[in-house]
Amino acid sequence: MPYFLTAIIFMPLLGAALIALIPAAQVRSIRLTAVAFNTAVLAAVVVLGLNFNRHTGLMQCLEDRVWIPQAGIHYTLGVDGISLALVFLTALIGLLAALASGGIVKRVKEYFLVYQVLMTGLLGTFLALDLVLFYIFWEAVLIPMFFLIGIWGGPRREYAAWKFFFYTLAGSVVMLVGILAVYFSVTPHSFNMIEIARSSSMIPGGVQAVLFLMFFFAFAIKVPVFPFHTWLPDAHVEAPTPVSVILAGVLLKMGTYGLMRICVPFFPAGAVLFAFPLAILGAVNLIYGAFAAFAQSDFKKMIAYSSVSHMGFVLLGVAALNVTGFNGALLEMFNHGVITGAMFLLVGVIYDRAHTREMSAFGGLASVMPRYAFFLTFMSLASLGLPGLSGFIGEFLALAGTFFRFPSIAAVSAIGLIALVALFLVIIKKVLWGKPAGHASYPDMNAVEISVMLPLVALTLCVGFYPQMILQFQTYAVNALVGLL
Amino acid sequence: MVNIAHFIPVFPFVAFWLNIIFGCRLGVACAYVSVGASAISAVLAVLVFMGLQAGGGSYVLTPWLSVNGHPISLGIIVDSLTVMMLLVVTIVGTLIQIYSIGYMGGDPRFTRYFAYISLFMSSMLGLVLVDNLFLLYIFWEGVGLCSCLLVAFWYEKPAAAAAGIKAFITTRVGDTGLLLGILLLMSVGHSLRFADMSVISAPEPLMVLAALLIFMGAVGKSAQFPLHVWLPDAMEGPTAVSALIHAATMVAAGVYLVARCYPLFTAHPLALQTVAVIGAISAVMAASIACFANDIKKVLAYSTISQLGLMMLGLGAGGYTGGTFHLMTHAFFKALLFLGAGSVIHAVHTQDIRAMGGLFNKMKVTSVTFIIGALALAGVAPLSGFWSKDEILTAVWQHGNLGLFIAAVTTSFLTAFYMTRLILLAFFGESRGAHKAHESPAVMTMPLVILAFFALFLGFAGSPWAHHAFQRFIAPEEGEVALDLGMAVASTVIACAGILTAFLLRGKFLGYKEGTCALIENKYYFDEIYDALFVKPFHRLAAAVARFDQVRVDGVVNGVSRCVQELAQASRSLQTGLVENYLLAQAGGVFVLIVVVTLVGKLCHIF
Amino acid sequence: MTELVFYIIAVSLCAFAFLSVTVGDVFHSAVCLTFTLLSVAGVYFFLGAPFIGVIQILVYVGGIMTLFIFAIKLTAKIGDASIRQFTRQLWPGAALAGAILALLLAVIRANAWSLRLLPPVQGPDLKQLGVELLTRYLLPFEFISLLLLAALVGAIVIGKVKK
Amino acid sequence: MIPLGHFVILSAVLFCIGLFGVLTQRNAIRFLISVEIILNAANINLVACNRYLAPANAEGQVVSLFVIGVAAAASVVGLILIISVYRQRKSVFLDDFNLLKW
Predict the structure, then answer these.
(1) What average pLDDT does range A210-231 have in this prediction?
(2) pLDDT value at position A275?
(3) Minimal Cα distance from C101: which residue of B?
(4) Confidence check: pLDDT of C86 > 90
């Protein structure tokens, strides 16, 4: 199908245009339009997945048009096993977060407008194959996110929004310089990501190392890698629930996706050189995030820091530079999107009722809200990496990959595993267990909330039981990636 | 018949989802769903057992995952060890679930209880069926989760909630070792299948390390020293749970794991020796604590640790049959003891044995079955415990290490002692509580009777009269076995000595002043030490990390932004608005420019 | 002889210029400027550019200086000598100006063309100037006229007293 | 005969006096006076160089004519601005006009 990827990317934007035409007072039709368009995107992505050739590591559905010939910039799109799962995740989380946006009552029209633009940026980032195009989409994500946090956020929203914006921008600027440097260091000069990956051996080792670091800096902020992570808790705490879900579920993956799409294939020598430091950073992320999360008193902040911890697994997997590690990293990216997205939804559910996120204010909710208790327990267990649920497979593969390359780091990371268990059990204990006090009147989760959770629960279970569901799409792409090293 | 084995865990799993989703509507009926499911599993297990006569084997259901090019398949292993575990788990599990109908009756979360139990059954059965370590790990964590959820079943009680978390985290420490062991085995041994355990060749130190890491998982799950601290606390859960999970099945999984990976251990004596030593330490330590415990369930919990230690000791000393045999007999009589204790607690609403007394006349069935269980545990011939314990003692004796043998003997003696003390205090003497005790309903006593039957006669499977059927079943390759008569006499004498000592000291039990043996009464201060060594530092470290994050890491970020602001602020004051200042700066700039241009010109001339 | 006259003019030129930026009274400084401008005109005559010299006298002394005197008179009371006439950066300014002078002098000294003497060829005469202005430099020339017109209009607009 | 250097030196001295004035004058009118001195210094330079270095051409003189013209325009506008500001603020001192900052 020609222009199928273009259609996927710009469908949300079309939705935005349509929403712009609806009078602001018709909140209901605005919501419906947004949901409808996100459903359409999800359907299109499912069609894409069904037509996806699982037996090749090459790019599929390629689209290539000259865009700015004077600068050698093309409009290139394509999908492979590395991006497919993330595109699906984006579409799914996008739809669920749109469904969960019922709590947004302020300037609904603007909200969904910005939201749709965000979706276009996210999908574009994962599908772009031209560095300049990638950069444009990358930045296009930043601006709507800035507004979503800055306008619809909590009390310290402006601080959080600015912090997020400047932090990410600082990384992007370095990346822009890196993009230009890459363009000039390959012959023929090209922004095409496939060609650059193919001719990566042309770049001398030292240059590769420097460029690797430049790109890594940009991606590290997005992931976020310790010590560039402090924007994340602030942004999460201030962002409204659906935005948090997008932020944790999809946005963070842009960083790790960049690592796998750009850092490793473009600069294999740099990747090999920095694999060990990267693995150390992964272990630090894992342990540090878990510990930092443990001491928080704000529910959302705990989950935010646990995200930092989980992204440590992804880093470990990438640092392993082997098939197992890459598979684990990709799977963990997907799983983290599903699980942590669900966790933020659950935090939102309880925040809607209690209007606070202080852990000390909860307790005994298992008796008051049994369905909520089920979902929270389920997702916490998935988060802590309980075997049988999806989180475990990704973590295990990432850890196994690391173990094959750096056994000592994998062994140290085990501390993080224990800390994560402690963290999520304590969350369960503090929120659900104990005697209910003062909040006996909270209604249990309603149909909309449950219907948003159910697909995530189903995915968590299915991937946990049958990881090939996701892995089968990425096998060849990962093998191709390892082949570049 | 063997290849129906993989259906065994499916039924409880279905029962779990049925109870979770339709639990509210099913009400009390959900108990029948769970009991029915595990009864079907039991029937299947028996069928598999009978099919085993035609030869066991392992089969692969489906490839599942590929790690580093090594396929991990969903494979099932069916051999004597598996079948023994299947039988134990399904039979004991079914009986305990029946018992639970009475014991948990009226609980507001009745359905939830049975859902968890079914999930546990399913995980436990999966655990013993799978043919490789990786899948075992999955179910291993699954039973750990169920244990945690069931210990914290009455989560309104802070102690229960804390115990649940403690159970999960402590075992998770061991499990992390197991996970690392799996990774190590995978990277050096290239196979996780139990069938390949004996043929894996890799550098000796790495294999020892792998074996020890795997053993670490067993230590956590079987509550062995030094990870035993969670099991006594886990007694906060419903007593039926204690019986099923924390006595009969789950805690025995550690022993099962060692038995399953036995070739790995026997190939490396250091690993095997470690197993024996850890088992010996656990056995003696826990037995000594049990002598001073006053909570009926705590006595039994420590007894469980001690007996599991004894099994480990047996395995470590090379007594494969002894260890596994004791695992089986112990499952039955310890389940019986716990259920009996539950029955008592149900009747008197206290767990303190000093507040019981004189129950024998009020609760005939419970008392008799409990005493049968206690005697079996104490190892009095010819009850089941005698036979299995005798095997272990023989094995340890033949192993030749005197220290280990003394430990085993001491454990036997102490076991007989504390069980007699428990019975004397709880069932005989005067009634010390103002309670009207009564016998439990039939749904609870019936399983007691059945279990007592097993406790009485199961041991004969290992006796000469049955031609050592168990030994031939579990380890046919070990060849002809014979009863060491001397050892049998010795072990009976030891047990009797323990019982006798308890009788002699019976007057002193009640008047015993606390603090005389502070070290043992306080469980060797393990909780306190761990609290000071791990728990508190963990919290402190977490707080420190959070503070560090806020102050230092974020401080740097905010500091950078503040620097920019300050810089802007500072450069603001340069903008005086006075044209003369601007001009001065401009002229200065011109001056500098001229200097630079001339200098550069000069330099160009020079070079 | 002519050299001597030139040097006298040069020295007085510098002196008047210096006085015009240092004397206390603004009116005096305007007078000094007048003399400065006249001296500059004199220098032009020495350089064989009598037309420029005449224009200098006409435009500057006749036109611009008149404006200055008007301006000074219109802002009358500031002629008061007691008011501080220098900004706070007198000495930095003086030092910088001196430094630049020293630098310029050094540069001039170091260059050979500074010793060049008057060439025998006659300089451009009035006719040549006129032709150049109306041919090659026609556009700038017209721009200057436009600029003057704009300045005129602008001055009227700005100077108009608003009611 | 007078060497070119002397004219240039004269121009330089005059320029620096003007520069000094520009840097130090508080009174706006004297500021403008200083500007005129600088312009004259430039003019001397232009005419002198024209005469000495390229006597056949008239560029220097043409440009100096332009300079005079522009200077005239500049001082007209400058002075009228000063008068206008004086009407508003009753001051011609530059340090009283420091609103254009931050």
Answers:
(1) 91
(2) 92
(3) B591
(4) no
| Contact call for C96 and D36, based on CB within 8 A | no
ipTM: 0.77
Q: Hey, how many other C-beta atoms are within 10 angstroms of the C-beta on B5?
A: 27
pLDDT at B386: 86
Sequence letter at residue B566: E
Which residues does residue D25 pair with via DSSP β-bridges, in sequence order? C86
CB of C29 closer than 8 Å to CB of C21: yes
Query: Lowest-pLDDT range, A26-40, B393-407, C20-34, C76-90?
Result: C76-90
Structure tokens at B570: 């500072």
CB contact under 8 A, D26 and C154: no
Residue-wise pLDDT tens digits, A393-444 = 999 999 999 998 998 999 999 888 889 999 999 899 888 888 877 666 788 8
H helices, E strands: number in chain D: 3, 0
The DSSP call for residue B73 is: E
d(CA B361, CA B358): 7
Q: How far apart are CA A444 and CA A454, in angstroms?
A: 15
Q: Do chains C and D touch (3 or more CB pairs under 8 A)?
A: yes
Residue of B579, B584, B605 best to disrupt the C interface, most CBs of C under 10 A: B584
DSSP code, position A61: E
Q: What percent of chain C has pLDDT over 90?
A: 37
pLDDT tens, residue order, chain D (102 aa): 788 889 999 999 999 999 999 998 888 888 999 999 999 999 999 999 888 888 888 888 999 999 999 999 999 999 988 888 888 888 888 777 777 665
pLDDT digits (tens, 9 = 90+) for A89-102: 999 999 999 999 88
Alpha carbon separation from B196 to B77, B189, B192 (Å, rounded)? 12, 9, 7
* CATH value of D4-91 in 3.40.630.10, 3.10.350.10, 3.40.462.20, 1.10.287.3510: 1.10.287.3510
Q: Looking at CA atoms only, how far is residue D2 from chain C in angstroms?
A: 6
Q: Do the chains contact at C118 and D94, CB–CB below 8 Å? A: no
Decide: A90 and A250 in contact? Cβ < 8 Å: yes
Give the H/E segment covering residue A196: helix A193-198
The pLDDT of residue B29 is: 83
Question: Are the beta carbons of B587 and D23 separated by less than 8 Å?
Answer: yes
- Chain A interface, best mutation among B24, B109, B172, by max A CB count within 10 A: B172
Which tokens go with A364?
């005994």
* Cis peptide upstream of residue A227 (ω within 30 degrees of 0): yes
Report chain B's C-alpha Rg in angstroms: 31
Structure tokens at B141: 């964590």
Within 13 Å, how many C-alpha atoms sit on residue B443's CB side? 14
Q: Is B430 helix (H, G, I), strand (E, B) or coil?
A: coil
Higher-confidence residue of B360 and D100: namely: B360
Nearest CA in chain C to B579: C87
> Residue A128's beta-bridge partner residues?
A77
Q: ∠A345-A346-A347 over CA atoms, to 5°?
A: 90
CB A211 within 8 A of CB A318: no
Domain assignments of chain D as residue spans, ordered by start: 4-91
What's the per-residue H, E or C state across chain C?
CHHHHHHHHHHHHHHHHHHHCCCCCHHHHHHHHHHHHHHHHHHHHHCCCHHHHHHHHHHHHHHHHHHHHHHHHHCHHHHCCCCCCECCCHHHHHHHHHHHHHHHHHHHHHCHHHHCCCCCCCCCCHHHHHHHHHCCCHHHHHHHHHHHHHHHHHHHHHHCCCC
Picking from B578, B582, B586, B594 by the largest number of C CB atoms within 10 A of its own CB, the best residue to mutate is B594
In sequence order, what DSSP letters do the residues of B472-524 get, joined into one string?
Answer: HHH-GGG------HHHHHHHHHHHHHHHHHHHHTHHHHHTPPTTTTHHHHTGG
A203 pLDDT above the threshold of 90: no
Q: What pLDDT, on the 0 to 100 scale, is given for residue C163?
A: 63
